[in-house]
Amino acid sequence: MRKLHTLWYDGRVRAWTLQFALLAGIAGCLAWFALNAGANLASRGITMGFGFLGQSARFPIAEHVVDYSPADSYGWAYVVGLVNTVQIAVLVTLLATVLGTLIGLARRSRHPSLSGIATVFVEVHRNTPLVVQLLFWYALVTTGLPAVRQALQPLPGVFLSVRGLALPRLGLGDIGSWFWAAVLMAALGIALGPRLGQAIGRGGLALRRSAWLLAGGLLVAVVCGLGGGRLSLDLPRLRGFNFTGGLSLTPEFVSLLVGLTLYSASFIGEIVRGGIDAVGRGQWEAGRSLGLSERRILALIVFPQALRIIVPPMGSQYLTIIKNITLALAVGYPDFASVAATTINQTGQAIEGVLILMTVYLTISLSISALINWFNRRVTLVS
């Protein structure tokens, strides 16, 4: 008895005992929930499992990048929804980053009108619920724009109407695979060129090495074109009550893209502005003492130092963009969450559908976090 009393007052033994009891309690609660859910599903004639993924989906997906028909399986419908989500996420991330950086710089401008416009933009978008903004843009596109026959044409071959946005599309003909291989080679050249130059001790040649690889990739595309491939520009044309040819972006896609981009850009703008303001004034004064212009001081001295402050919250904002895409249901865009909700309604496999949702979004979030952490280590100042 005395031995047990002594063990209880041992800090490590008491800590391990309490942790084991806590884990046992959590495991018991999860087991109770699982058994209770299984009993309720069995009473309703619903069997658990992922076998439904092979069944025919029997519902249309209005907008899809890859081929899809209602006869395809639920599993393929999930893939189509995931591709739609990734597509809008990449576009919003790129556009919001560029626009947000410009807004952040405009907020720091000494020009009162430019700074005031940027401030109003940030305050309006940050203090308005995102779903309200998405509904506003959707209503504006579907009711505020002219009919197809009176479509606005801001640029040659570009039409804006209640049917969405119609754009020219590059037709690659028989050289599509070669063209994208050339683009991939050029991208690798730009990404790996500086690293290769540093590895051989010739950092000054990195930019020229990347340029040569980029030129080589374009040369491959040109040679393939001269060898029998056809490059063409497919322009949208009005046929009846809609446009044919070219690239058509639906009102749902346009409203979601615009709403998410502007909303995310307002937060990114504040992140960029805060990162630049966090760099000491002495860096600006040192640049001026060297005779550098304000623009070159920002580009060569201040902004590289501000990156170590900007990158961590920027990664969190990118994760928020992924999560905000689930609001696409408000404007009718068929993203991954929308497809999952439809599948759950038709099959009744709510637990499995939610598990798929959680797994996919967790995988995407962890992948983005790993990429941001890698980049953050690259830009960290080493003392």
Secondary-structure element pattern, one letter each: HHHHHEEEEHHEEEEHHHHH
The beta-strand count equals 8
Write out the strand line-up for the largest beta sheet, numbering strands in chain order: 1-2-3-8
Please tell me how large the radius of gyration is. Answer: 27 Å
Beta content: 5-15%
Major sheet characteristics: 4 strands, antiparallel
Please report the distance between the alpha carbons of the first and last residues: 57 Å
What report would you give on this structure?
- By secondary structure, this protein is α+β, with helices and mostly antiparallel strands.
- The protein is 67% helix and 7% strand.
- It is built from twelve helices and eight strands.
- It has helices at 2-8, 11-43, 74-107, 112-126, 130-143, 176-199, 206-226, 251-277, 281-289, 294-324, 336-347, 350-379, and strands at 152-155, 158-161, 164-167, 169-171, 232-234, 237-239, 242-244, 247-249.
- The strands form three sheets. Strands 1-2-3-8 form a four-stranded antiparallel β-sheet.
- A hairpin with a 2-residue loop joins strand 2 and strand 3.
- Helix 3 (74-107) runs antiparallel to helix 11 (336-347), helix 5 (130-143) crosses helix 8 (251-277) and helix 9 runs antiparallel to helix 10.
- The longest helix has 34 residues, at 74-107.
